[in-house]
Amino acid sequence: MSEAVEHVPAAGATSVRRSRDVPLLVERARTGDPRAVARLITLVENGDALLPEIAAALAPYAGQAQVVGLTGSPGVGKSTTTNELVRALRERGHRVGVLAVDPSSPFTGGAILGDRVRMQDHATDPGVYIRSMSSRGHLGGLAAATPQAVRVLEGAGCDVVLVETVGVGQAEVEVASLADTTLVLLAPGMGDAIQAVKAGILEIADVFVVNKADRDGADATVRDIQGMIALGERGPGQWRPQVVRSVAARGEGIDDIAAAIDKHRGWLVEHGELRRRQEARAAAEIEAIALGVLRARIGSLRDGTELTTLAAKVAEGTNDPYTAADELLAQLGT
Ligand SMILES: Nc1nc2c(ncn2[C@@H]2O[C@H](COP(=O)(O)OP(=O)(O)OP(=O)(O)O)[C@@H](O)[C@H]2O)c(=O)[nH]1
Ligand SMILES: [Mg+2]
Known about the structure:
seven-stranded parallel β-sheet; about 50% helix; globular; binds guanosine-5'-triphosphate; binds magnesium ion; chaperone; hydrolase; Methylmalonyl Co-A mutase-associated GTPase MeaB
């Protein structure tokens, strides 16, 4: 493949790695230079001051990749499935980006190391970018940083971006809901079906994958989920979540997962839902960025005299906290 050329350390490789020249980085990322892609994602992740410039440069490439989220409890087989999906997508000639995201941790941890190992198969493939993400310095957290990283991968010409998120909780639901198609992975006998309902995951699942189908209880888990889907209220023309079983560790069922993703993609396009989801994603992005800015401004007011003065008045009973909050917001110049 001619792209392999990009992997040869070219002159100026170090400068790309440390560069703050956004037009250069974006231009290099456009040609598929993995160092430029990595550099841009690092800047995004750190909430660098260059972020607005990066976002502006990447704006024209928005919506060019199919974004597929994979979520589910720790150890359910997300990375193994992702690895196999990458293989299937590569066979179809797609360029693929993978973001492994852990919303529960501000730093990349052990789980991410495991991801790296399990996705080693594609480490030398120039058509695949694999990246672990943490929220580090980003004001809006991962809910804001992840879509920016997706934009970088779109800019780099990825046809599909797979976003793996760990855990079950609100942060994970937030990140997962940034995808066009969301896969919820379950395993037999983990009480997962019940948990999924609790975490509000049922609403975000477009495809349920019962992985580890080589284990006892897979049939019961499939039945449980199908029962839950049947109970869910659905208007005419609404998507009915698919249930697929897989043994990712043996590469079994991966074609079925890919087929379910394709089917959902077709439905999204046919019903105008793809654009609606892209707009919902943009709305969440704008909101997260705006709230991050507000939070930072309020934080800086805390160091100054304004908040201190207001707080003293509320504490001594000469002002109430609602009026004080209004006054604070007025001072933010919003
Ligand atoms: N028996 C069986 N084991 C599997 C299957 N798929 C994955 N595993 C194993 O389950 C373990 C966890 O797999 P991962 O792919 O790392 O799971 P994960 O959901 O990415 O885990 P975290 O990122 O830590 O949340 C590994 O030891 C896999 O080899 C499967 O279909 N059957
Ligand atoms: Mg994993």
